[in-house]
Specification:
7-stranded mixed beta sheet, globular, 4-stranded mixed beta sheet
C-alpha cells in the first residue's frame, strides 16, 4: 500500500478545499476536516485522492458502502434507472422488486415497508408508527444510543449530544445499555444476571406513566463504539417490551445488510422486533432508509391515513434501484457469509490486543463491525482527543482511513474487502497501537 505523501497538498486539492470551506456552514463531519483529503475516485476497499494517494477504506461513510465502492453491477443498475426515471410517487417495477426481494430475508411479521431518505427520518416514522399502533405515548431508549440528529431522534439520546440543542420532545426515558466494559453497577457478566435490564424494568415502573409505546434499541450500538452486548441480552429486552405491552423497535441503520455477519443483527439472537429501522448501507451511497413492520398494527389509525406517512423522496425510482442492486449484490456474492469469514480473520488478529497492548481496554467484533476502546494503561480512563487525533493522522499517513480520531475506534471495511487488504489495515492499526503504548508513559495523567 502506498503511504500518503508528506508533501503539501497540490494547488488543485487546496483550491477545492478552500472553495468548499468558503461556502459551507459549520457542523460538518469531523473526519472531513481531520483527513483533509479530496477524493478523486474509489474502487472496492480503496480510495484515491486528487494527489494520487491510495487508501484502504475502513470508514466507508460510516458503514454505508457494504458492497464496496463503484461496484460494476451497482453502476449498471443505476445507469439504467437514470435514463428511465428518477423521481415520482407512482408505482414502479423497481420498487416492487425491491420490496419482494427484501421480504425474502424477513419473517412473516415484517413484510410491509415504508421508505424514507435518512435514518433519522425513518426513526421518527418508527416512533410515530409505534404510538399510533399502541395508542400510547412514552418511549424507552438507552444510554449511549444514537438514532439520528433530527429533534425527535435527538430526544432519544442519553448523553452530551443533547447539550444546548433543546427544547426537545418529551416522553422519552433512558436506561442503561449492556455495555459490560463500563457497567454502571460495576458488575460482571454473566454473574450480573442482566441487572441493567432490571434497572430498565424499575425505571418503567417508577419513572413513567406506564403508557409505553415502544422500546427502541440498537442490537449493536454503533456511534457509541460498536458495543456488542452479551449473549441473551436482546431476548431480555424482548421480554421487557412484552411485559409492558410495548412495541420493540430495532434500529439497524448501521447493523443491517450483512455488517454483523447476518443479514440483520437480530438474527444472531433470533429475536424478532415489531418494527425494523433500516438505512445507511441500504442504498450504498444513495440516501435511502425504511421502516418495516406489520400493516395490520396501524389499520384505522392516523398513521394509515392517505399521505400521513409519505415523504417527498421516499422510494423514488433511483433510491429503489440503488437498494435493489444492493440487496441483489449482497445475496448473489454471498457477502453476508463473507462478512462472517472476514470477522473471524479480524478476530484472529485483534483478540490479543486488549491483553498485549496496554492502551486497548476493550474490543468488540461481530462480523465486520469492529470496535476498540483506547484507555490510559491500568485504568479505564479514555485517551484524550489530542492523542487520538495523532493516532488517526498516523494511520492516514500509512494509507488507512478509519474512525480512529476518538478513544472509541469504529471500523467498517466493505464486506467485499479482500483478505490481504483487511490484514494490512489491521496490522497497520496494531503497529500504531504498539507505538502509542510505548509513548503513552510520557503523557501527563492525573487519576
Amino acid at each position: 500500500m502506498k503511504s500518503r505523501s508528506n508533501q503539501a497538498p497540490s494547488p488543485t486539492t487546496q483550491e477545492i478545499i478552500s472553495k468548499f470551506s468558503k461556502y459551507s456552514l459549520p457542523g460538518g463531519p469531523i473526519i472531513t476536516e481531520y483527513a483533509n483529503i479530496v477524493v478523486d475516485h474509489a474502487e472496492n476497499a480503496h480510495i484515491w485522492d486528487t494527489d494520487g494517494n491510495r487508501y484502504i477504506d475502513f470508514f466507508t461513510g460510516v458503514g454505508v458502502c457494504n458492497i464496496g465502492h463503484s461496484h460494476p453491477k451497482f453502476q449498471e443498475c443505476m445507469t439504467k434507472q437514470l435514463v428511465r426515471c428518477t423521481v415520482g410517487s407512482f408505482y414502479t417495477d423497481v420498487r416492487a422488486q425491491l420490496h419482494e426481494s427484501l421480504a425474502e430475508f424477513l419473517p412473516s411479521n415484517l413484510q410491509q415497508m415504508h421508505m424514507f431518505s435518512t435514518g433519522s427520518e425513518a426513526v421518527e416514522a418508527a416512533i410515530r408508527f409505534a404510538r399510533a399502533a399502541s395508542g400510547r405515548e412514552e418511549v424507552i431508549s438507552f444510554w449511549g444510543g444514537f438514532h439520528g440528529k433530527t429533534q425527535g431522534a435527538i430526544s432519544l439520546h442519553a448523553g452530551p449530544r443533547k447539550k444546548d440543542v433543546g427544547p426537545l420532545p418529551t416522553g422519552t426515558h433512558h436506561v442503561p445499555y449492556a455495555y459490560c466494559f463500563r457497567c454502571p453497577l460495576k458488575l460482571g457478566f454473566p454473574g450480573c444476571q442482566y441487572a441493567c435490564v432490571e434497572i430498565a424494568r424499575n425505571t418503567i415502573k417508577e419513572s413513567t406513566t406506564g403508557n409505553i409505546a415502544a422500546i427502541i434499541i440498537e442490537p449493536v450500538q454503533g456511534t457509541n463504539g460498536n458495543i456488542v452486548p452479551p449473549p441473551g441480552y436482546l431476548k431480555e429486552i424482548r421480554k421487557l417490551a412484552d411485559d409492558f405491552g410495548a412495541l420493540l423497535i430495532f434500529d439497524e441503520v448501521i447493523t443491517g445488510f450483512g455488517r454483523t455477519g447476518r443479514f440483520f443483527a437480530y438474527e444472531h439472537e433470533n429475536v424478532v422486533p415489531d418494527i425494523l429501522v433500516l438505512g445507511k448501507a441500504m442504498g450504498s451511497g444513495v440516501p435511502t432508509s425504511a421502516i418495516i413492520s406489520d400493516a395490520t398494527l396501524v389499520e384505522n389509525t392516523p398513521f394509515s391515513a392517505p399521505s400521513a406517512a409519505s415523504s417527498t423522496f421516499s422510494g423514488n425510482p433511483l433510491a429503489s434501484a440503488a437498494a435493489l442492486a444492493t440487496v441483489e449484490i449482497i445475496r448473489d456474492e454471498h457477502l453476508v457469509e463473507r462478512s462472517r469469514e472476514l470477522g473471524k480473520l479480524a478476530e484472529s488478529i485483534i483478540e490479543s490486543w486488549s491483553r498485549d497492548l496496554p492502551v486497548v481496554g476493550n474490543t468488540g467484533i461481530l462480523g465486520l463491525m469492529i470496535g476498540l476502546e483506547l484507555i490510559f494503561p491500568g485504568t479505564n480512563r479514555p485517551l484524550p482527543v489530542e492523542l487520538t487525533y495523532q493516532f488517526f493522522s498516523s494511520l492516514l499517513s500509512r494509507g488507512i482511513i478509519a474512525m480512529a480520531y476518538g478513544s472509541r475506534i469504529r471500523l467498517y471495511p466493505p464486506l467485499s474487502i479482500n483478505d490481504s487488504d483487511l490484514q494490512e489495515g489491521l496490522l497497520a492499526i496494531q503497529s500504531e497501537l504498539q507505538i502509542l503504548s510505548k509513548v503513552i508513559g510520557d503523557y501527563p495523567f492525573e487519576d
